[in-house]
Amino acid sequence: MSDFSLDLPDAPVTGPDAAVSSTDAPADPAVSRRKREMHKLEKRLCRLTGQAIVDYRMIEEGDRVMVCVSGGKDSYTLLDILQKLQRRAPVRFELVAVNLDQKQPGFPPDILPAYLEGTGVPFHIETQDTYSVVKRLIPEGKTMCSLCSRLRRGILYTVARRLGCNKIALGHHRDDIVATFFLNMFFGAKLKGMPPKLVSDNGEFMVIRPLAYVREADTQRWADYREFPIIPCNLCGSQEHLQRKQVGHMLREWEKEYPGRTERILHAMQNVVPSHLMDRALHDFEHLRTTGVPDADGDKAFDEEFFPAASVIQLPETTPRGPAGWTGEEPGA
Predict the structure, then answer these.
(1) Are 131 and 102 in contact (CB under 8 A)?
(2) Across-strand partners of 208?
(3) Helices marked H in 138-259 — which ranges?
(4) Are the C-beta atoms of 80 and 42 separated by less than 8 Å?
(5) What is the pTM of this model?
Protein backbone atom coordinates (compact mmCIF):
# COMPACT_ATOMS: atom_id res chain seq x y z
CA MET A 1 0.00 0.00 0.00
CA SER A 2 1.25 3.48 -0.78
CA ASP A 3 2.17 5.81 2.02
CA PHE A 4 0.75 9.05 3.34
CA SER A 5 3.06 12.04 3.68
CA LEU A 6 2.41 13.64 7.03
CA ASP A 7 5.17 16.18 7.29
CA LEU A 8 3.12 18.72 9.16
CA PRO A 9 4.52 22.22 8.71
CA ASP A 10 4.63 24.70 11.51
CA ALA A 11 1.59 26.31 9.96
CA PRO A 12 -0.76 28.84 11.55
CA VAL A 13 -2.44 27.36 14.57
CA THR A 14 -6.10 26.56 13.97
CA GLY A 15 -7.15 26.13 17.58
CA PRO A 16 -7.99 28.75 20.18
CA ASP A 17 -4.39 29.91 20.30
CA ALA A 18 -4.75 31.29 16.78
CA ALA A 19 -5.90 34.56 18.29
CA VAL A 20 -2.44 35.16 19.70
CA SER A 21 -0.23 36.78 17.08
CA SER A 22 3.46 37.52 17.37
CA THR A 23 2.84 40.87 15.68
CA ASP A 24 0.36 41.88 18.37
CA ALA A 25 2.39 41.11 21.48
CA PRO A 26 5.56 39.35 22.66
CA ALA A 27 5.25 35.60 22.61
CA ASP A 28 3.81 34.20 25.83
CA PRO A 29 5.98 31.22 26.89
CA ALA A 30 2.93 29.31 28.13
CA VAL A 31 1.11 29.83 24.83
CA SER A 32 4.20 28.87 22.83
CA ARG A 33 4.64 25.73 24.90
CA ARG A 34 1.00 24.77 24.41
CA LYS A 35 1.28 25.29 20.66
CA ARG A 36 4.32 23.01 20.56
CA GLU A 37 2.54 20.36 22.60
CA MET A 38 -0.53 20.47 20.39
CA HIS A 39 1.62 20.30 17.26
CA LYS A 40 3.27 17.14 18.63
CA LEU A 41 -0.15 15.75 19.51
CA GLU A 42 -1.39 16.43 15.97
CA LYS A 43 1.59 14.61 14.51
CA ARG A 44 1.10 11.68 16.87
CA LEU A 45 -2.58 11.39 15.99
CA CYS A 46 -1.76 11.46 12.28
CA ARG A 47 1.08 8.97 12.66
CA LEU A 48 -0.89 6.43 14.68
CA THR A 49 -4.00 6.75 12.51
CA GLY A 50 -1.93 6.43 9.35
CA GLN A 51 -0.10 3.43 10.79
CA ALA A 52 -3.36 1.64 11.57
CA ILE A 53 -4.61 2.36 8.05
CA VAL A 54 -1.42 0.87 6.60
CA ASP A 55 -1.30 -2.15 8.93
CA TYR A 56 -4.87 -3.19 8.17
CA ARG A 57 -5.13 -1.79 4.65
CA MET A 58 -8.18 0.25 5.61
CA ILE A 59 -8.26 2.85 2.82
CA GLU A 60 -7.33 2.32 -0.82
CA GLU A 61 -7.43 4.14 -4.13
CA GLY A 62 -10.91 5.29 -5.08
CA ASP A 63 -12.58 4.52 -1.74
CA ARG A 64 -15.58 6.57 -0.72
CA VAL A 65 -15.51 6.60 3.07
CA MET A 66 -18.57 7.38 5.14
CA VAL A 67 -17.35 8.89 8.42
CA CYS A 68 -19.92 8.45 11.17
CA VAL A 69 -20.03 11.64 13.24
CA SER A 70 -22.05 11.39 16.43
CA GLY A 71 -21.12 14.72 17.97
CA GLY A 72 -18.71 13.12 20.44
CA LYS A 73 -14.99 13.81 20.86
CA ASP A 74 -13.85 10.63 19.12
CA SER A 75 -15.86 11.00 15.91
CA TYR A 76 -14.90 14.68 15.62
CA THR A 77 -11.24 13.70 16.00
CA LEU A 78 -11.61 10.92 13.43
CA LEU A 79 -13.05 13.27 10.79
CA ASP A 80 -10.47 15.96 11.55
CA ILE A 81 -7.48 13.59 11.27
CA LEU A 82 -8.81 11.84 8.15
CA GLN A 83 -9.09 15.23 6.47
CA LYS A 84 -5.45 15.93 7.26
CA LEU A 85 -4.40 12.52 5.92
CA GLN A 86 -6.53 12.97 2.80
CA ARG A 87 -4.60 16.10 1.82
CA ARG A 88 -1.27 14.20 1.94
CA ALA A 89 -2.28 10.76 0.75
CA PRO A 90 -0.76 9.26 -2.39
CA VAL A 91 -4.08 7.49 -2.93
CA ARG A 92 -7.23 9.38 -3.77
CA PHE A 93 -10.27 8.77 -1.60
CA GLU A 94 -13.42 10.68 -0.70
CA LEU A 95 -14.90 11.47 2.69
CA VAL A 96 -18.60 11.91 3.44
CA ALA A 97 -19.61 12.81 6.98
CA VAL A 98 -22.89 11.32 8.19
CA ASN A 99 -24.80 11.97 11.38
CA LEU A 100 -27.84 10.03 12.53
CA ASP A 101 -30.29 12.31 14.35
CA GLN A 102 -32.18 9.82 16.53
CA LYS A 103 -34.66 12.45 17.75
CA GLN A 104 -33.47 12.35 21.33
CA PRO A 105 -35.16 15.01 23.44
CA GLY A 106 -32.93 18.04 23.75
CA PHE A 107 -30.67 17.06 20.83
CA PRO A 108 -29.55 20.34 19.20
CA PRO A 109 -30.25 19.86 15.46
CA ASP A 110 -28.25 22.88 14.28
CA ILE A 111 -24.84 22.27 15.86
CA LEU A 112 -23.51 19.47 13.65
CA PRO A 113 -24.71 20.90 10.31
CA ALA A 114 -23.08 24.23 11.18
CA TYR A 115 -19.81 22.55 12.15
CA LEU A 116 -19.72 20.22 9.15
CA GLU A 117 -20.49 23.09 6.80
CA GLY A 118 -17.31 24.74 8.04
CA THR A 119 -15.14 21.68 7.41
CA GLY A 120 -15.81 21.63 3.68
CA VAL A 121 -16.54 17.89 3.82
CA PRO A 122 -19.74 16.75 2.07
CA PHE A 123 -22.18 15.68 4.75
CA HIS A 124 -25.61 14.18 5.28
CA ILE A 125 -27.88 14.32 8.33
CA GLU A 126 -30.18 11.29 8.52
CA THR A 127 -33.22 11.76 10.75
CA GLN A 128 -34.78 8.61 12.18
CA ASP A 129 -36.75 8.42 15.43
CA THR A 130 -34.98 5.43 16.98
CA TYR A 131 -35.27 7.06 20.41
CA SER A 132 -38.99 6.33 20.63
CA VAL A 133 -38.44 2.75 19.50
CA VAL A 134 -35.78 2.12 22.13
CA LYS A 135 -37.79 3.74 24.92
CA ARG A 136 -40.86 1.72 23.94
CA LEU A 137 -39.11 -1.65 23.78
CA ILE A 138 -36.54 -1.44 26.60
CA PRO A 139 -37.89 -1.53 30.18
CA GLU A 140 -36.96 1.36 32.44
CA GLY A 141 -33.53 0.84 33.98
CA LYS A 142 -32.37 -1.73 31.44
CA THR A 143 -29.39 -1.16 29.12
CA MET A 144 -30.41 0.50 25.86
CA CYS A 145 -27.10 0.29 24.00
CA SER A 146 -27.58 -3.07 22.29
CA LEU A 147 -30.92 -2.28 20.63
CA CYS A 148 -29.85 1.28 19.85
CA SER A 149 -26.69 -0.04 18.14
CA ARG A 150 -28.62 -2.55 16.02
CA LEU A 151 -31.09 0.06 14.85
CA ARG A 152 -28.32 2.54 14.13
CA ARG A 153 -26.28 -0.02 12.21
CA GLY A 154 -29.13 -0.91 9.86
CA ILE A 155 -29.87 2.74 9.14
CA LEU A 156 -26.21 3.56 8.49
CA TYR A 157 -25.92 0.66 6.02
CA THR A 158 -28.88 2.07 4.12
CA VAL A 159 -27.37 5.55 4.11
CA ALA A 160 -23.97 4.24 2.96
CA ARG A 161 -25.63 2.44 0.07
CA ARG A 162 -27.59 5.54 -0.90
CA LEU A 163 -24.46 7.73 -0.80
CA GLY A 164 -22.36 5.25 -2.79
CA CYS A 165 -19.86 4.60 0.03
CA ASN A 166 -17.91 1.35 0.25
CA LYS A 167 -16.19 2.00 3.60
CA ILE A 168 -17.77 3.00 6.91
CA ALA A 169 -15.36 4.65 9.38
CA LEU A 170 -16.15 4.57 13.10
CA GLY A 171 -14.44 6.54 15.85
CA HIS A 172 -13.56 3.72 18.25
CA HIS A 173 -10.08 4.13 19.73
CA ARG A 174 -7.53 1.90 21.47
CA ASP A 175 -9.26 2.06 24.85
CA ASP A 176 -12.61 1.06 23.30
CA ILE A 177 -10.97 -1.96 21.66
CA VAL A 178 -9.33 -3.14 24.89
CA ALA A 179 -12.51 -2.54 26.92
CA THR A 180 -14.54 -4.57 24.41
CA PHE A 181 -12.11 -7.47 24.80
CA PHE A 182 -12.73 -7.58 28.55
CA LEU A 183 -16.48 -7.07 28.15
CA ASN A 184 -16.66 -10.14 25.93
CA MET A 185 -14.45 -12.14 28.28
CA PHE A 186 -16.15 -11.18 31.54
CA PHE A 187 -19.77 -11.06 30.39
CA GLY A 188 -19.87 -13.07 27.16
CA ALA A 189 -17.36 -15.86 27.92
CA LYS A 190 -15.54 -15.18 24.62
CA LEU A 191 -12.05 -14.06 23.68
CA LYS A 192 -13.39 -11.55 21.21
CA GLY A 193 -12.59 -7.93 20.58
CA MET A 194 -13.45 -5.02 18.32
CA PRO A 195 -11.33 -5.50 15.17
CA PRO A 196 -9.84 -2.53 13.32
CA LYS A 197 -11.41 -3.79 10.09
CA LEU A 198 -14.26 -6.16 9.32
CA VAL A 199 -16.98 -6.80 6.78
CA SER A 200 -20.42 -5.43 7.69
CA ASP A 201 -23.14 -7.80 8.88
CA ASN A 202 -24.81 -7.74 5.47
CA GLY A 203 -21.53 -8.38 3.64
CA GLU A 204 -21.82 -5.16 1.65
CA PHE A 205 -19.45 -2.71 3.32
CA MET A 206 -16.04 -2.65 4.97
CA VAL A 207 -16.20 -1.21 8.49
CA ILE A 208 -12.94 0.43 9.61
CA ARG A 209 -11.66 1.93 12.85
CA PRO A 210 -8.71 4.17 11.92
CA LEU A 211 -8.21 5.34 15.55
CA ALA A 212 -7.43 1.76 16.66
CA TYR A 213 -3.95 2.75 17.95
CA VAL A 214 -4.98 6.11 19.43
CA ARG A 215 -5.44 6.64 23.18
CA GLU A 216 -8.70 8.09 24.42
CA ALA A 217 -6.72 10.67 26.41
CA ASP A 218 -5.34 12.01 23.12
CA THR A 219 -8.76 12.31 21.46
CA GLN A 220 -9.92 14.18 24.57
CA ARG A 221 -6.96 16.57 24.47
CA TRP A 222 -7.42 17.18 20.75
CA ALA A 223 -11.16 17.77 21.14
CA ASP A 224 -10.51 20.25 23.95
CA TYR A 225 -7.88 22.07 21.93
CA ARG A 226 -9.94 22.21 18.74
CA GLU A 227 -13.03 23.21 20.75
CA PHE A 228 -15.28 20.76 18.95
CA PRO A 229 -18.97 21.42 19.71
CA ILE A 230 -19.53 18.24 21.75
CA ILE A 231 -23.08 16.87 21.88
CA PRO A 232 -23.57 14.40 24.77
CA CYS A 233 -25.58 11.21 24.29
CA ASN A 234 -28.41 11.44 26.81
CA LEU A 235 -30.01 8.18 25.72
CA CYS A 236 -27.50 5.67 27.10
CA GLY A 237 -24.59 7.79 28.30
CA SER A 238 -26.46 8.65 31.50
CA GLN A 239 -26.89 5.00 32.51
CA GLU A 240 -24.41 4.72 35.36
CA HIS A 241 -24.26 0.94 35.76
CA LEU A 242 -23.37 -0.06 32.22
CA GLN A 243 -20.92 -2.95 32.06
CA ARG A 244 -18.73 -0.90 29.72
CA LYS A 245 -18.41 1.81 32.37
CA GLN A 246 -17.37 -0.77 34.93
CA VAL A 247 -14.69 -2.16 32.64
CA GLY A 248 -13.52 1.35 31.74
CA HIS A 249 -13.11 2.17 35.41
CA MET A 250 -11.11 -1.04 35.93
CA LEU A 251 -8.76 -0.21 33.04
CA ARG A 252 -8.23 3.35 34.26
CA GLU A 253 -7.34 2.09 37.73
CA TRP A 254 -4.92 -0.42 36.25
CA GLU A 255 -3.32 2.29 34.14
CA LYS A 256 -2.83 4.48 37.21
CA GLU A 257 -1.14 1.70 39.15
CA TYR A 258 0.72 0.14 36.22
CA PRO A 259 1.30 2.74 33.47
CA GLY A 260 1.43 1.15 30.04
CA ARG A 261 -0.78 -1.82 30.88
CA THR A 262 -3.47 -0.90 28.34
CA GLU A 263 -0.84 -0.68 25.63
CA ARG A 264 0.49 -4.11 26.56
CA ILE A 265 -2.98 -5.61 26.40
CA LEU A 266 -3.40 -4.19 22.89
CA HIS A 267 -0.07 -5.79 21.90
CA ALA A 268 -1.24 -9.10 23.37
CA MET A 269 -4.33 -8.97 21.16
CA GLN A 270 -1.98 -8.70 18.17
CA ASN A 271 0.24 -11.55 19.37
CA VAL A 272 -2.04 -14.56 19.78
CA VAL A 273 -0.73 -18.12 20.24
CA PRO A 274 -3.73 -20.39 19.40
CA SER A 275 -1.90 -23.58 20.42
CA HIS A 276 -1.64 -22.26 23.97
CA LEU A 277 -5.33 -21.51 24.36
CA MET A 278 -8.21 -24.02 24.39
CA ASP A 279 -10.23 -23.30 21.26
CA ARG A 280 -10.50 -26.51 19.23
CA ALA A 281 -11.67 -24.55 16.20
CA LEU A 282 -8.41 -22.58 16.14
CA HIS A 283 -6.03 -25.41 16.94
CA ASP A 284 -6.37 -29.08 16.03
CA PHE A 285 -5.85 -30.62 19.46
CA GLU A 286 -7.65 -33.82 18.44
CA HIS A 287 -5.13 -34.76 15.76
CA LEU A 288 -2.05 -33.45 17.56
CA ARG A 289 0.76 -36.02 17.32
CA THR A 290 4.36 -36.20 18.43
CA THR A 291 6.90 -35.78 15.64
CA GLY A 292 10.25 -36.14 17.36
CA VAL A 293 11.15 -32.73 15.92
CA PRO A 294 11.70 -29.74 18.27
CA ASP A 295 8.81 -27.28 18.09
CA ALA A 296 9.31 -23.63 19.05
CA ASP A 297 5.61 -23.48 19.96
CA GLY A 298 5.67 -26.72 21.91
CA ASP A 299 5.03 -27.31 25.60
CA LYS A 300 6.41 -24.37 27.51
CA ALA A 301 3.97 -24.61 30.37
CA PHE A 302 6.76 -25.37 32.84
CA ASP A 303 9.17 -22.75 31.56
CA GLU A 304 9.76 -19.89 33.95
CA GLU A 305 8.20 -16.82 32.39
CA PHE A 306 10.10 -13.58 32.84
CA PHE A 307 7.92 -10.57 33.50
CA PRO A 308 9.83 -7.34 34.21
CA ALA A 309 8.82 -5.34 37.24
CA ALA A 310 6.10 -2.83 36.50
CA SER A 311 8.38 0.07 37.36
CA VAL A 312 10.94 -0.88 34.71
CA ILE A 313 8.69 -2.03 31.87
CA GLN A 314 9.84 -0.64 28.54
CA LEU A 315 6.91 -0.53 26.14
CA PRO A 316 7.53 -1.43 22.52
CA GLU A 317 6.37 0.71 19.64
CA THR A 318 2.58 0.83 19.36
CA THR A 319 3.05 -0.96 16.04
CA PRO A 320 6.03 -1.90 13.92
CA ARG A 321 7.15 1.21 12.13
CA GLY A 322 5.89 1.29 8.60
CA PRO A 323 7.15 3.38 5.71
CA ALA A 324 7.07 7.16 6.12
CA GLY A 325 4.16 8.42 3.88
CA TRP A 326 0.94 7.45 5.63
CA THR A 327 2.67 7.35 8.98
CA GLY A 328 5.08 10.28 8.53
CA GLU A 329 7.92 9.50 10.91
CA GLU A 330 8.57 12.58 12.96
CA PRO A 331 11.16 12.90 15.71
CA GLY A 332 9.64 13.53 19.10
CA ALA A 333 6.09 12.87 17.93
Answers:
(1) yes
(2) 169, 197
(3) 145-163, 174-188, 216-226, 243-257
(4) no
(5) 0.82
